[in-house]
Amino acid sequence: MVTFSLISMLLLMTSFILAGCGNQQNKPPAATEKTVMDMAGKNVKLPVAINRVIVTCYGGASHELVVLGAGDKIVAQPSMKRFPQLVKMMPRFKDLPDPGTFDNVNIEAILKLKPDLVVASVTSTKGNQKIEEAGIPVITVSTGVADIEALKKEFRMMGEVLNKSNEANALVSYWDNWLKTIKERVSKIPEAKRKRVYYMLGAPLHTNGSAWWGQTLITAAGGLNVASEIGKGRDINIEQLLTWNPDVIIISSNEGRFIPISEVKNNPQFKDLQAVKEGQLYQCPIGTFWWDRPSPEGILGILWLAQILYPENFRDVDLTQETIKFYQTFYYYNLTEQDVKEFFNPGPLQ
């Protein structure tokens, strides 16, 4: 009786073991590839595990990797020397090789580095094709050609690519929360009392019409872009600027050259402008990237401008502390108040 029971038990255990082995044999292998739609609308097959990334564009692509916690995966990129705060935070960026930019890429150098992925601009179709023909997946990013919704979509896309979706969603939520707050606070201001803004971009008569990010920056902050009417245009004449007669002028050097406020103030052609007469001239801040460009910290630029235009509506916002909080949360970096002071008082970049 005991022998029979023992034999039955052994047979039962053997059947469980065989069933377990069968289940393991039938279990599908873990996926090694995934497909992600990039900012050009192209479905790209790439490895699930992304450990080595090459960047072949400017426009904030490297900054997106850093803010999503993937800066250590970059093995080559264009020089970041003109962004000293970024290099200060990521010292290894000083010595990374340059693989070329946009359509002027070095395929031999790229292949030697054996990347899992190349992050490139939607505008560099020729360069991207060369990389793809070499057998390397290419994910395109907007490099400045985006509005707010497209930029948030890009953050989520890069989160999916890098297996950093939680970080990307947190960044998008931060943007959404501040955009909602700004909209609520400026929505009660009648259009007749909205500040009229001129965006001076690297040259006194170079600006952004409604088709460019300057429009997004100004309108998201509750202002009116005086150059909106020129659409895709970017260059004007002095007569047009005098006719617009803006209340506020914001100055940026993300294109062209650095223009000191004193140069605008002392230019006899501008002496009759309302913004000049009332001293409403401001340099756009620069953190790890230009705050007046679409990038992860571009939301701080929108908040900065809203506070410039409507200080009474944002008196409770300490932008220095908010910037420190942003860097702690997303860059895992502790800024000093002196660091932020330098953001607000930029000089010429290298």
TrEMBL record:
Signal peptide range: 1-19
Superkingdom per UniProt: Bacteria
Keywords: Signal
Domain Fe/B12 periplasmic-binding: 53-313
Pfam families recorded: Peripla_BP_2
InterPro entries for the chain: ABC_Transporter_SBP, ABC_transptr_periplasmic_BD
Gene3D superfamilies to which the protein is assigned, alphabetical: 1.20.58.2180, Nitrogenase molybdenum iron protein domain
Family statement: Belongs to the bacterial solute-binding protein 8 family.
This protein's name: Fe(3+)-citrate-binding protein YfmC
Taxonomic classification: Bacteria, Bacillati, Bacillota, Clostridia, Neomoorellales
